[in-house]
Amino acid sequence: EAQVTQNPRYLITVTGKKLTVTCSQNMNHEYMSWYRQDPGLGLRQIYYSMNVEVTDKGDVPEGYKVSRKEKRNFPLILESPSPNQTSLYFCASSRGMDQPQHFGDGTRLSIL
Amino acid sequence: GESVGLHLPTLSVQEGDNSIINCAYSNSASDYFIWYKQESGKGPQFIIDIRSNMDKRQGQRVTVLLNKTVKHLSLQIAATQPGDSAVYFCAENIIGNQFYFGTGTSLTVIP
To answer: Are β-strands A107-111 and A10-13 bridged in parallel, bridged antiparallel, or unpaired?
Structure first.
């Protein structure tokens, strides 16, 4: 089954404790992206990757890092999480920038 | 940043009626537009897309209209069903750049 898998689905942690949210897709997609979703603000793009070893900042990259060492994986790293990063996060992938994206089921992060 | 907005945050329709969800965008260089549906507890799901060289595209029970003159996008759902109840987002892409999403419209179908 074609899918985008995110882990963990839920996480409660404390300020400053580094965390990684993993994202994996099994569709051989070149384009991958991370979004955060906050009430009233819709989805905002954090980082995206056009292909392996190619990443670019989206609209709200501050406080986040990503890497794309393999085509299927695109982890989101919060080196020093802060409470304003409490949000619902989605990973997505597509064949290209001008193709519809497939989304994971989301990761709800709470930073205390 | 880019502005992608929706005219109405909520919409209620009777089952069987047609639904129209609107979206305004502000960048005339936007080249590709997508409508997504998001059900509670799930990620957005692709519904239909349209490119800037078209003004209308039809899918199964859905139609997307693009008016580049006024930078307006709409999603029409025919014979709306209870399973259509969800939040609907429009998204736009500018060639070589990232995606921008609207804030969403919540559609409620009344049986």
So the answer is: parallel
